[in-house]
Amino acid sequence: MPSRTLPTFTRAEVAKHNSAKSCFVTIGDNVYDVTDFLDSHPGGADLVLEYAGKDIKDILQDPSSHAHSDAAYEVLEESLVGFLASSDDSKGGSTGLENGAATRTDAKGRPIHPRTGMSCEEDLTKDTDIASDYKTHRFLDLSRPLFPQVWNGGFTKEFYLDQVHRPRHYRGGASAPLFGNFLEPLTKTAWWVVPMIWVPCVSYGLYLAYPGFENKAGQVVCFAGGVLLWSLIEYVMHRFLFHIDYYLPDNRVGITLHFTLHGIHHYLPMDKYRLVMPPVLFATLAAPFWKLAHTLFFWDWSIATSIYCGGVFGYICYDLTHYFLHHQNLPLWWKKLKKLHLEHHFLDYENGFGVTSPFWDIVFGTQLSSQVGSAKKVD
């Protein structure tokens, strides 16, 4: 099975891949397998084979040669198979990473994070070559239902976590099949379903609790407190439930539950019908909090209900924010949130757990590296 990062090659190993059966080229430290591209090259296969096993950076930039389009670089990015081993690597020294930051680069010189295989948020919307992806990683075939593949895959926890956090993008942003049968519609939820179902529930709960307040401003305070409490619950659930990675049981039940609950979102982060929480799942997760609220505030049903309604309203704001961060062009404040959240997907899934606000990431020290760097510049 594939390792946590792409493999490294010595220059001698790359030089051996110099034929039509196996053609490798390099740009800097990046190694590309362009064998399948040979017959498609506009200048013919022979022109590429002339540089087989060699570095092509100079010829790509040579003004006397024809100009290469962005499409050519995209072909290369999809063909990345590893990196050249530096002298330090061969001696077991530096990994090329400092404090988790990637030093490998894509064809345009942008840093690639080794644990996601991506360099920028635009990578999240590049269609995955399904056949090539499965051939390379031997994880999931996006053309077939995913749930049975996860259940029957026999994946180790380490391999599963490595692969599920390497984002893919299904044909034009459509939804990849999960069950492939009558259950399929139940796995998809449009963003507008969330306010349509839960706003009336919140309004009705507040209506029932209203007579219990002598000072009507008290209900506003309780409701606002519930919204603020949700922001902490959001952070805790995202960090310790959805990203239970370290404590995830190393068996098919644990892995399949993880994939169904949140793993599929990291695997296919731009699937717009699997971004917000299905109503049945939210009701299941929210039920214990109803009991908790009325246990903590047992002396006053109205207070408990108003706080709970505030929490549910906070959830509504969270799910809508989450959807819009992925799929809408937003005003300045939300652009910053969008940048941070998408970095959680393509750069560092072990930090940046706040979606509606980075406040709790700052409090608990789980900021993304870009947040820390911005803070240092301000200082």
From TrEMBL:
Location relative to the cell: Endoplasmic reticulum membrane
Swiss-Prot/TrEMBL keywords: Endoplasmic reticulum, Fatty acid biosynthesis, Fatty acid metabolism, Heme, Iron, Lipid biosynthesis, Lipid metabolism, Membrane, Metal-binding, Oxidoreductase, Transmembrane, Transmembrane helix, Zinc
Positions of the UniProt region annotated as Disordered: 87-119
Cofactor: binding details: Binds 2 Zn(2+) ions per subunit that likely form a catalytic dimetal center.
Cofactor(s) named in the record: Zn(2+)
Domain of life: Eukaryota
Residue span(s) of domain Cytochrome b5 heme-binding: 6-85
Annotated protein name in UniProt: Ceramide very long chain fatty acid hydroxylase
Originating organism: Humicola insolens
